Amino acid sequence: MNTIGLTSTDSPADGSQTAGQTPAEYLARAVALATDNVRNAGGPFGAVVVAADGRVFEGVNRVTANLDPSAHAEVSAIRNACQGLGTFDLSGAVLYTSCEPCPMCLATSLWARIDKVYFAADRNDAAAAGFDDAVFYRYFEGDASDREIMPVAREELPPVQRVEPFTEWNDTVGRTDY
Ligand SMILES: Nc1nc2[nH]cnc2c(=O)[nH]1
């Protein structure tokens, strides 16, 4: 039992719980999920999404368990929220995470239209535990030409071919914008 009275086995990851706790309590829940997850062969990260309607969804890091580099806690919580709510748009939601979101989780939060993010530990705490969050922030902060750990290069194609998917998209009537 953690400080807000929930164990990982009665996790309200399905949105069955409604809002009403303080940011510090949701953060404490995210931290407790992270610690429990280590004991469950996962990475030391946990996250909670409180949707605009107050429903609560949770996620933990399952990168090594699921052989999925994108299975960070925040992404898992966002996936759970989107599946539970039946939407790809989490406008009005708040994300609470045990650790500062990495660039992927931050970008996923932006794409999900999350309103606000609270975190507990930061990228330097993660680095002290051997995680590359701070390294990857530096990767994005530098010039494209500095990206030595993974070069990203444009390959020239004829202009019409290059934008063909966007042309198809723009010409599609009744598409679902996001
Ligand atoms: N914030 C965050 N950083 C990570 N670094 C490696 N995995 C994770 C994760 O799940 N969340």
TrEMBL record:
GO terms for molecular function: guanine deaminase activity; guanosine deaminase activity. Keywords: Hydrolase. Residues 21-132 form the CMP/dCMP-type deaminase domain. Its EC number is 3.5.4.3. One of its GO terms (biological process) is purine nucleoside catabolic process. InterPro entries: CMP_dCMP_dom (IPR002125), Cytidine_deaminase-like (IPR016193). It holds the Pfam family dCMP_cyt_deam_1. It comes from the Bacteria. Residues 1-20 are annotated as: Disordered. This is Guanine deaminase.
